[in-house]
Structures are given as structure tokens and as C-alpha cells.
Specification:
alpha/beta, 12 helices, eight-stranded parallel beta barrel, 9 strands
């Protein structure tokens, strides 16, 4: 089976732009991605992060699903410990009713924010890991109602919305394998354990009613442009953003610069480049060759691209080039 390709979007707000602009850009990207053959379009929950406007994730999913026709739309992900499982089942049951066979529910266990905001979300921070129970509870709410079941998700029960486990460590890989769920690894910002996590997931996978065999999505930062030089220049926008995140600053998408040399220290450069280790940056030919190498190394079932660029036209072009590259290299790598 040829690898699929998808998009992760955080409704990025550019420097000098507005949240309303970010939402319009997100919808335009989703509609364009549908034409280019992307499989799914996921949005991620983050809080108290100026520069990211996807906090009300289920609301934004409805907005995108309502503006598209066939592409799957979902969360990448909802941070489940921030919520009651029943509420998430109801929200995604509602979405699945409105947009049948198009909604995905990816869940993670990280706060998606800082410690202060986690407390404001009423998140339990006492160190006890209740995530496996929460996932099992969520799956039960989305399953058909059992005889005598007193608590139901209405809507939600019987919707069987596909649930994905998301992670940036081996923990989620092992949990996804044990529960027989599809797995998405956040290699777009935490690539260090990518191959180890994929190996653990595949080696320990237990078939379930949800999934017969392992299925893996890998996150990839993307900056594709007309030439390698132009792509490297555009890539300074996400680099500056990662740098601001390291420094605890607001992460509005900044315009690109000609050089990063005077903007970071040697240690900061090393940390940012480490976060972007699997990034694919270049013109069409470079993107194709690096994607081919990445697919050979990971044997991923699906690649999920992230491309937060300052100009919307550059961002759209980046994803269009990636769609063309995936079509070109998929048959070669998986033949």
C-alpha cells in the first residue's frame, strides 16, 4: 500500500496578523489540501500560547469539516487528561454525526501548555498516570451501548469514531500497541526516539476490534519551495519560532530572514536543529529525495506534514510541492 500524506495544523498566527486571519488561512489550506489528495487534516490542542489559535480544537474541526467535502478532519490531538472522557466522546460524536465517516480523534497525554495553565484547566498534576484508563473509558463511550449501561455519550455512543494515540516517547508507542490502536509519533518536534518508538509499536502490536495490524503516522516539518536556497530562507521562520519557544517568548510566525547567525547562540542553534532533525527543506528534487530516504528508514504508513510559514502563498506552495513529491516517491519506496 502506498504511503498516505496528511497535514497537521495549529492555526498559526503570523506576526502582525490576527486570529481571524489564521482561521481563514486554515480553511483555505484544508480546501487546497483536499484538491491535492491529502488524506486527513488534523488540528492540535494548545493553550495560553499566543501565536497558536487551535485551543478550541473540536470547534475548529467543525469549521474545517464544514468547509471541505471528502478529506478526513480530526485532532492531532486532544490532550485527554485536560478533559472528561464523556465530554470528548460527546463532542466527537456530534462531529461524526454532522460529518459521517470523516472524523478522527487523536488523543495525547501531555498538557499542551505550561504548568500554570494546566492548573487553570483543572488538570491533575499529582504525577499519577491515569491516561490508559481514560483512553479505555473514551473507547467505551464511543462503542455501541451495552445492555444495562447507565451512562451514555449522546451523541457518541455507537459512533465508533477512530481513536489514535499520539506521542513523542516510547510510552505511547507501547500503550498503542497494547490497546491495538493506530499510532502517530510527533517526530515533527521530538525526533530523537522515532525509530525506537516505531519498532516497539510494531513488535508489540496486539490486533484488536479497532485495528488488525499496526498503522503509523510520522510527523515531518516541511519547507518546500521553488529552489533549495528559497526553502532555506523560508525555513528561518519556523527556526525563529522554535527559538522563541525555547526562550519562553510568544511564538507568532515571524517573517523569514537572510541569516540566523546573529539571532541564536551556539547552544540554541543546536537545540533548534535537534528539534528539526527530520525536517525536509528544499526545492522539489530535494524534497523528493529526502522524503524517499525518510520513508525507507521509517516505513511509515502515512506522513503528516507541518509547514508554518509567514506568507500564506508560500505555505500553500510548500504543501502542494509535498503532495507532488509523495506521489512521485511512494511507488518507488514501497514497490
Amino acid at each position: 500500500m502506498l504511503p498516505k500524506y496528511s497535514i497537521l495544523d495549529l492555526a498559526p498566527v503570523r506576526l502582525g496578523g490576527s486570529i481571524a486571519d489564521a482561521y481563514r488561512n486554515t480553511l483555505e489550506l484544508a480546501q487546497s489540501a483536499e484538491r491535492w489528495g491529502y488524506t486527513r487534516f488534523w488540528l492540535a490542542e494548545h493553550h495560553n500560547m499566543p501565536g497558536i489559535a487551535s485551543a478550541a480544537t473540536s470547534v475548529l474541526i467543525g469549521y474545517v469539516a464544514g468547509g471541505t467535502r471528502t478529506m478526513r478532519v480530526g485532532s492531532g490531538g486532544v490532550m485527554l487528561p485536560n478533559h472528561a472522557s464523556l465530554v470528548i466522546a460527546e463532542q466527537f460524536g456530534t462531529l461524526a454525526t454532522l460529518y459521517p465517516d470523516r472524523i478522527d480523534l487523536g488523543v495525547g497525554r501531555a498538557p499542551g501548555t505550561d504548568r500554570l495553565t494546566a492548573h487553570a484547566l483543572r488538570r491533575n498534576l499529582n504525577g499519577e498516570d491515569d491516561f490508559p484508563r481514560q483512553v479505555a473509558e473514551l473507547l467505551a463511550y464511543l462503542a455501541p451501548v451495552k445492555p444495562g449501561q447507565l451512562l451514555q455519550a449522546v451523541p457518541g455512543a455507537g459512533s465508533n469514531v477512530p481513536v489514535w494515540l499520539l506521542g513523542s516517547s516510547t510510552y505511547s508507542a507501547q500503550l498503542a500497541a497494547a490497546m491495538g490502536l493506530p499510532f502517530s509519533f510527533a517526530s515533527h518536534f521530538a525526533p530523537e526516539l522515532l525509530l525506537q518508538a516505531l519498532r516497539l509499536y510494531r513488535d508489540n502490536f496486539k490486533p484488536s476490534a479497532h485495528l488488525a495490524k499496526p498503522y503509523v503516522i510520522t510527523g515531518v516539518p516541511l519547507v518546500a519551495a521553488a529552489s533549495d536556497d528559497e526553502a532555506r530562507r523560508l525555513a528561518t521562520s519556523p527556526m525563529q519560532r522554535h527559538l522563541k519557544l525555547l526562550r519562553g517568548e510568544e511564538i507568532h510566525v515571524p517573517p523569514p530572514v537572510d541569516s540566523m547567525d546573529d539571532r541564536w547562540s551556539a547552544s540554541e542553534k543546536q537545540m533548534v536543529e535537534s528539534k528539526l532533525r527530520v525536517a525536509i527543506i528544499g526545492g522539489p528534487a530535494t524534497v523528493e529525495s529526502r522524503l524517499a530516504a525518510f520513508l525507507r528508514d521509517t516505513q511509515a504508513d502515512e506522513v503528516m506534514f507541518v509547514s508554518d510559514l509567514y506568507e500564506q502563498t508560500d505555505r500553500l506552495r510548500s504543501f502542494e510541492i509535498a503532495s507532488q513529491a509523495m506521489k512521485a516517491v511512494g511507488a518507488l519506496v514501497y514497490s
